[in-house]
Amino acid sequence: MSEAPHAYDVYQARRQRLRERCAAAGDAAAVVSRPANIRYLTGTASERAALLLGAHDPGADVLLRAVPPGARPEEGRLDEALRLQLLDGPGADPAVAAATLALRQDRRPVAVEEHDLTVARYRAMASAAPGIALTDLGGAVEQLRYVKDEEEISCLRIAAEITDQALGELLESILVGRTERHLALELERRLIDHGADGPAFASSVGTGPNAGLARHQPTDRRVEEGDFLTVSLGAVYRGYRCAIGRTFVIGTTPADWQVELYDLVFAAQRAGREALAPGAACRDVDRAARQVLTGAGYTEGLAPVTGHGVGLENVEDPQIAPAAMGKLDARVPVTVEPGVHLPGRGGVRIDDTLVVRPEADGGPELLTITTKELLAL
Questions:
Q1: The 3-state secondary structure of 279-315, one letter per residue
Q2: Which residue pairs, CB below 8 angstroms and at least 24 apart, start in 65-74?
Q3: How does DSSP classify residue 359?
Q4: What is the 3-state secondary structure (H, E, C) of 80-120?
Q5: Residue 265 near residue 302 (C-beta atoms within 8 A)
Q6: If we measure between CA atoms, which residue out of 364, 285, 283, 284 comes closest to residue 331?
Q7: Are strands 346-349 and 339-342 parallel, antiparallel or unpaired?
Q8: DSSP character for 55?
Q9: What is the pLDDT along the chain (377 residues), one digit of tens a residue?
Q10: Please, which residues have CB within 8 angstroms of residue 108's CB and are 6 or more apart in sequence?
Q11: Which of 94, 220, 225, 230 satisfies CB 3.0 to 4.6 Å to 50 for a cystine?
Q12: How far apart are CA 162 and CA 146, in angstroms?
């Protein structure tokens, strides 16, 4: 996907912030290999690419991209401050080629994303550039990605609108007798129909005893009257991902136990949402939601995290978990997704994507707006 010309200065500014970090650490260059980080710094969505960033010279930045045999190079013009080098040899590795280029340009040391590299790939880079010390860039780019700008949030907002549309259309259709797998595939088709790049993750549909299971893989179980139905899905728009999770009852008035369980999870989710604020400790947000469930006696089988950051990846920092150490900042998008599953009976999950905002700006911005009322479909 090509980017609008006005976006080029955004990518240049992002690379400059990383460049300053590298220079301060004493690195002459950096090789960025993680696809989401490359997209953040350059706008390219290629999975087979690496960015060689000069720590002192913006004109030395090079995007290296592998082109499989017989494939055409991606369309889209990069900004003039970023040179493009295409690699068309069989098995060409852009990260290894970037290390070779750094050696040729006598840049040393070179920071690399050790957390993204396999041992074999790291050794291949070291072998291709003998004599160049490879240092660890760590999560420097992820730290830059933590707080989103308003353009990024706009993409998240559109992803959420697409997700809400797809889910809303499914709820208007006949569900009884259809399989979990069929419903999940239909959701993903509807995401594409409404303009998504694709699903953010494999859509999950759980019915009856499968409802409320986190990351449930859809089966051939058919929807039956009286079931809880749990749906989890998300769209990708311009690389940015959102998530929504909802629980419904099929075809009849909910049973008392279903209403009680739903109200409990809804209260936990609301407590977590209301705890989102700049400066709030992530563990405190988790505690706000979790203590509603544990206070009602549900201690077994709870998810290890109540939520997490989202953006160019499905799961980003921060983690909203009992042992999380960080604090929230304004303009950080997160999910809040508590749930309870009763083995053999089913359960409830409610998941929203929100953006942390200060109280002066109206508090947390809810992106996923499909009703959280317990509907009988």
A1: CCEHHHHHHHHHHHHHHCCCCCCCCCCCEEECCCCCC
A2: 65/94, 66/92, 66/93, 66/94, 74/44, 74/45, 74/46
A3: G
A4: CCCEEEEECCCCCCHHHHHHHHHHHCCCCCEEECCCCCCHH
A5: no
A6: 364
A7: antiparallel
A8: S
A9: 445 545 678 999 999 999 999 999 999 999 999 999 999 999 998 889 999 999 888 888 999 999 865 556 554 446 667 999 999 877 899 999 999 999 999 888 999 999 999 999 999 999 999 989 999 999 999 999 999 999 999 999 999 999 999 999 999 999 999 999 999 999 999 999 999 999 999 999 999 999 999 889 999 999 999 999 999 999 999 999 999 999 999 988 999 999 999 999 999 999 999 999 999 999 999 999 999 999 999 988 788 999 999 999 999 999 999 999 999 999 999 999 999 999 999 999 999 999 999 999 999 999 999 999 999 99
A10: 28, 29, 102, 131, 132, 133
A11: 94
A12: 23
CA 53-58-64 angle, to 5 degrees, is: 40
Query: Measured in whole angstroms, how far is the alpha carbon of residue 21 from the centre of its chain?
Result: 24
Please indicate, yes or no, whether the overall pTM of this predicted structure exceeds 0.85.
Answer: yes
Q: Which residue has the tokens 């500014």?
A: 13
Is 376 in a helix, a strand, or coil? strand
Pairing of strands 49-54, 62-66: antiparallel
How many C-beta atoms lie closer than 10 Å to residue 29's C-beta?
A: 27
Structure tokens given for 255: 């049973």
Nearest Cα to Cα of residue 355 among 333, 329, 330, 328: 333
Cα 269 versus chain centre, distance: 20
> Are the CB atoms for 185 and 156 separated by under 8 Å?
no
